[in-house]
Amino acid sequence: MSTITRILSGKDGVGKSTVTALVGEQLALMGRKVLLIEFENGLRCLDLYVGATATKVYDLDDLLNGRCGIDDAVAVSALSGNLSVIFATNSRRHIDPEQFSTLVLALSDSYDHIIIDTDCSEESIDCLSGFAMNSIVISTSDPSGTRDAKFVCDRLFSQNVPGVKVLFNRVRKEYIADKIVPDLDYSMDMIGVPLIGVVPELADIVRCTAKGSLPKNKTLTQKIFKSIALRLEGESVPLTVI
Ligand SMILES: Nc1ncnc2c1ncn2[C@@H]1O[C@H](COP(=O)(O)OP(=O)(O)O)[C@@H](O)[C@H]1O
Ligand SMILES: [Mg+2]
């Protein structure tokens, strides 16, 4: 049975797909069998981030609607044989929550982790609330980012969703030091859920997603995402706040 985790946010561009790719990669390098599903409707990018572009013609919508079988839609990443991905559809289509949960449950015997990279529509928030074991809300540390993250967390709480954590991404310590944005303690208090990680703004992360490559061993990027992967598995890894 897989650990099912969804990555969500109140805004686009805050790093949901980046976190999905980099955490999934670290879990795969730890020897886990990992499936990433890009639930984003009409805006595909995870295939690029994990080096799996053009390896499959079928996508999530094809799979859900019976136009292909599971093997036709599951692409193996060039970065690790343990890492697979189901591509988002390139067109805007309604995803039926029941069909989607049936698919995820059918796949869950074959993987240690299924990580679902969602968009920030209310439809996808609600669609996954029934069965995701972990929900990681990605937030930036500026006031509008934290307000949107709080909105998402409050919605999850109203649905009694367990395992909600926040991850601050694209954090710039000079902005905090100059008091341009509030510090992370304040932002955490605003959102009101436990922290699973803090990721600074790093050119190395842009490089990884642009080239579909792994972070080099022992770099800051690799260490941060390995720690998040370990915390997702319940290990207690001290947080290094940048
Ligand atoms: N911590 C970070 N440092 C630098 N760039 C980042 C970071 N996180 C994400 N990005 C960049 O931001 C862009 C958008 O990220 P993405 O994960 O696609 O956002 P989302 O899925 O939330 O819409 C990508 O080009 C990615 O490389
Ligand atoms: Mg995305």
Q: What does this protein structure show overall?
A:
The protein has 242 residues and is α/β, with parallel strands linked by helices. Helix content is 40%, strand content 18%. It has eleven helices and eight strands. The chain has helices at residues 16-29, 46-49, 60-64, 70-73, 97-107, 122-128, 143-158, 173-177, 184-191, 203-211, 220-232; strands at residues 3-9, 34-38, 74-76, 83-86, 113-117, 134-139, 164-171, 195-200. It has an eight-stranded mixed beta sheet, sandwiched between helices. Helix 1 (16-29) crosses helix 11, helix 5 (97-107) crosses helix 6 and helix 7 runs parallel beside helix 9 (184-191). Bound molecules: adenosine-5'-diphosphate and magnesium ion. The site of adenosine-5'-diphosphate has 17 residues, from helix 1, strand 7 and helix 10.
